[in-house]
Write a structure and sequence with these properties.
93 residues, alpha+beta, two-stranded parallel ribbon, 4 strands
Length: 93
């Protein structure tokens, strides 16, 4: 994200910019656990790769991440343990 966007009114940001800004704000707090719901859903492929790289760094540093995604590929790239919800039931993958 461009530095200028950090001070822009939220209403002027695109959905993807809002998504990345929210994640940046959450990461700035250095939480022990991140709960993420479709953190890259509105992002292009390049931005998704950058966000996933940051998340992998956090995983390596010991942050626990629970992520909800509709992308099995993303789950495979980021998840050590994966569960699939189908017909309101979860199953380990």
């Amino acid at each position: 994200l461009a530095t200028a966007l950090l001070h822009s009114p939220v209403v002027r940001l695109s959905t993807g910019e809002r998504q990345r800004l929210a994640l940046a704000r959450a990461l700035a707090l250095d939480p022990p656990v991140l709960l993420l719901d479709e953190p890259t859903g509105a992002l292009d492929q390049d931005s998704t790769a950058l966000v996933e790289a940051v998340l992998r760094e956090r995983l390596a540093a010991g942050t626990a991440i629970v992520i909800v995604t509709h992308s099995p590929e993303q789950a495979a790239r980021l998840g050590e343990q994966r569960f699939r919800m189908e017909q309101r039931r979860g199953q380990a993958m």
